[in-house]
């Protein structure tokens, strides 16, 4: 281990000893500061030291062609001071390298979502198309909150719907929440938390009239998909979410009690949906094949359930002259029919499985006729009786 006073000129001329692949020159001024000269001509600066356990460690400062000698010496002095104070630069560097990229965290997130999340395909789509595409190669501790905020703003400027940007932000933040729970290095700080987006006004609601509902059902009856009409009919009669209905097992229908059991809903809770006689009649007319466990089995694989009615739905909707109507609007329409029949909001919320009264309050304006009848009845009670 040759010892020398390292200088800029020495670095340029120091040879690799004959017959060796490399020669290390240790600085006589800064303890542990070393120049490695390789037979290939490459030259690299290191700081070598003993850690708290007495093991020999080294920290790479940089290649001579990349940094100047003055910068290398200054870095060596700083690192040496850290070692003297009990630090371990090599351990810090190894710890930094142990922080995974977002792509690795995203894979863990998706694996968890596949086990526990009903909307796994949606999460995977947003994550792959947007989040991983931008941040996949970035180490978690290098993802900066300001950069994320700017990226989300750019997404909105690109023309993405506000609801889509909110969804992307939620998925990104959820990754870091899971990472922190699992103790993944780099997830101690969630760079998405605290980012403010413009308030989202996505409360688009569409309610069918009785005539419109009749036209839609008639169009669904003419569909090439024999399951479309019963699906539409049950959505209007129960107010269920389409994913809840399509995944219903036959064993979850209790004809005697006139209920349909939903094991897991959007709120994370199970619930029982009451079934009107008209709903029971639709269920009773559904084809029953041996070995099928779902009310709406998939035509391609009867052991699984139908996952979408998109194409048949769009055709029936357009045939009924109801452009822009969404499947989820049938849930709103079911609520509106109940409210305008005099059913109170609490009962409607229980039928729909709302987590709180605030969710049901959106339908309060629908019961205008019912409310008018109520105040008229109250006013009549206040009128003095005539002899």
If you had to describe this structure to a student in words, what would you say it looks like?
The chain has 387 residues and is of the alpha+beta class. Helix content is 47%, strand content 10%. It contains 16 helices and 8 strands. It has helices at 8-13, 69-84, 89-97, 102-116, 120-135, 145-157, 162-182, 210-221, 228-238, 242-246, 277-285, 310-319, 329-339, 345-352, 357-360, 368-382, and strands at 3-4, 22-27, 33-38, 43-50, 56-63, 253-254, 259-262, 271-274. It has a 5-stranded mixed beta sheet. Strand 2 and strand 3 (33-38) form a beta hairpin. Helix 8 (210-221) packs across helix 12 and helix 9 (228-238) packs antiparallel against helix 11 (277-285). The longest helix is centred in the middle third of the chain and has 21 residues, at 162-182. The radius of gyration is 34 Å and the shape is elongated.
């Amino acid at each position: 281990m040759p010892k020398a006073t390292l200088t800029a000129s020495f670095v340029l001329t120091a040879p690799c000893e004959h017959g060796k692949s490399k020669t290390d020159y240790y600085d006589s001024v800064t303890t542990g500061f070393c120049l490695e000269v390789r037979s290939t001509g490459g030259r690299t600066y290191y700081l070598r030291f003993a850690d708290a356990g007495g093991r020999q460690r080294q920290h790479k400062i940089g290649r001579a062609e990349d940094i100047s000698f003055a910068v290398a010496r200054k870095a060596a002095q700083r690192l040496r001071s850290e070692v003297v104070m009990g630090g371990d630069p090599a351990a810090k560097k190894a710890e930094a390298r142990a922080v995974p990229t977002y792509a690795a965290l995203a894979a863990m997130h998706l694996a968890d979502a596949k086990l526990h999340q009903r909307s796994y395909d949606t999460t995977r789509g947003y994550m792959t198309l947007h989040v991983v595409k931008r941040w996949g190669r970035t180490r978690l501790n290098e993802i900066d909150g300001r950069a994320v905020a700017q990226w989300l703003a750019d997404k909105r400027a690109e023309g993405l719907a506000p609801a889509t940007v909110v969804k992307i932000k939620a998925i990104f933040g959820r990754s870091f929440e899971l990472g922190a729970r699992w103790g993944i290095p780099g997830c101690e700080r969630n760079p998405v938390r605290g980012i403010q987006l413009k308030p989202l006004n996505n409360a688009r609601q569409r309610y069918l009239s009785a005539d419109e509902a009749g036209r839609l059902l008639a169009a669904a009856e003419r569909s090439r998909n024999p399951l479309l009409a019963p699906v539409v009919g049950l959505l209007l009669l129960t107010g269920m979410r389409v994913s809840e209905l399509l995944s219903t097992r036959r064993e979850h229908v209790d004809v005697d009690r006139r209920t349909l059991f939903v094991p897991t809903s959007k709120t994370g809770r199970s619930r029982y949906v009451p079934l009107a006689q008209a709903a029971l009649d639709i269920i009773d007319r559904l084809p029953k094949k041996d070995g099928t466990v779902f009310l709406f089995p998939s035509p391609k694989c009867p052991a699984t359930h139908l996952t979408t009615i998109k194409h048949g739905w769009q055709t029936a909707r357009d045939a009924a002259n109801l452009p822009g109507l969404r499947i989820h609007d049938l849930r709103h329409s079911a609520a509106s029919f109940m409210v305008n029949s005099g059913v109170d909001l609490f009962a409607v919320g229980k039928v729909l499985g709302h987590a709180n009264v605030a969710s049901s309050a959106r339908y309060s304006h629908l019961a205008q006729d019912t409310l008018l009848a109520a105040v008229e009845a109250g006013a009549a009670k206040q009128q003095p009786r005539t002899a």
